[in-house]
Automatic annotation (TrEMBL):
The active site is at residues 15, 63. Mg(2+) binds at residue 15. Keywords: Magnesium, Metal-binding, Transferase. It comes from Candidatus Liptonbacteria bacterium GWC1_60_9. Substrate binds at residues 16-20, 32, 60-62, 64, 67, 185. It comes from the Bacteria. One of its GO terms (molecular function) is ditrans,polycis-polyprenyl diphosphate synthase [(2E,6E)-farnesyl diphosphate specific] activity. Its EC number is 2.5.1.-. This is Isoprenyl transferase. Binds 2 magnesium ions per subunit. Homodimer. Catalyzes the condensation of isopentenyl diphosphate (IPP) with allylic pyrophosphates generating different type of terpenoids.
């Protein structure tokens, strides 16, 4: 795909799994299972087209803490299984993809689930060409509050510490990721959620589609990329 402007980093807010399930007379977790399959297809397509950084919000902190336990347990099973399949897939190895998992998953998940996700990160640690980031038990507001706490502790130990943008970025969970160029939100609700990657999306373009996440595919991704390419990047006010 030859485009005038091409994003270096795409982040996806995949809304619509439960509504897709209801529309197809399926159980909510069947919608999540369909969404997991879409995730792998779209991530593969994005990397194939040349996007070096792809970030996917698999599970919010609120989803983990507030949804029915059976649904959350199934979600975690899907996430772990899907990430494992990606980490061991041929295309991930051939494309030099590194899988990283960010969020409060080490704090909130069971030890067995934590070990499973750690193995996935370890299996792809040698990948240097592309980065696939999966956000699990993630909340942008929580990320920023923790960053402030980290900086406050540094300032306590070093009163002359210079607090600037670079220091804030270094204190974030997403410290090693570049700014997000394009945020894609599916499901027809054009809004931001839970301070999603608030520091990294300060200058992002947003693409909203009514398509529910399980129905999102290569064609819709292409539309999002063409829409992004037609826009003029503006930074600041």
């Amino acid at each position: 795909m030859k485009l005038k402007n091409f994003p270096n980093h795409i982040a996806v807010i995949p809304d619509g799994n439960r509504r897709w399930a209801a529309a197809h007379r399926k159980l909510p977790w069947e919608g999540h299972a369909a969404g997991a399959k879409t995730f792998e297809r779209v991530a593969h397509e994005a990397f194939k087209l040349g996007v070096p950084y792809f970030t996917f919000w698999a599970l919010s902190e609120d989803n983990f803490l507030k949804r029915e336990k059976r649904e959350v347990a199934f979600l975690m099973k899907i996430i772990a299984q899907g990430a494992k399949e990606i980490a061991t897939s041929t295309w991930v190895r051939d494309m030099g993809v590194r899988v990283r998992i960010l969020g409060r998953w080490r704090d909130l998940l069971r030890e067995k689930e934590v070990r499973a996700l750690e193995k996935i990160e370890d299996a792809t640690r040698s990948g240097t060409e592309r980065t696939l980031t999966i956000l699990v038990a993630y909340n942008g507001t929580t990320e920023m509050v923790q960053a402030v706490r980290n900086i406050a502790e540094l300032a306590r130990m070093s009163p002359d510490l210079e607090i600037n943008g670079a220091l804030v970025k270094k204190a974030l969970m997403t410290a090693t990721l570049p700014p997000v160029d394009l945020v894609i939100r599916t499901g027809g609700e054009p809004h931001w959620s839970a301070g999603f990657m608030m520091w990294d999306t300060a200058e992002s373009h947003f693409y909203f589609t009514k398509t529910l996440w399980p129905d999102f595919g290569a064609k819709e991704l292409g539309k999002a990329l063409r829409d992004y390419s037609r826009r003029e990047r503006r930074f600041g006010t």
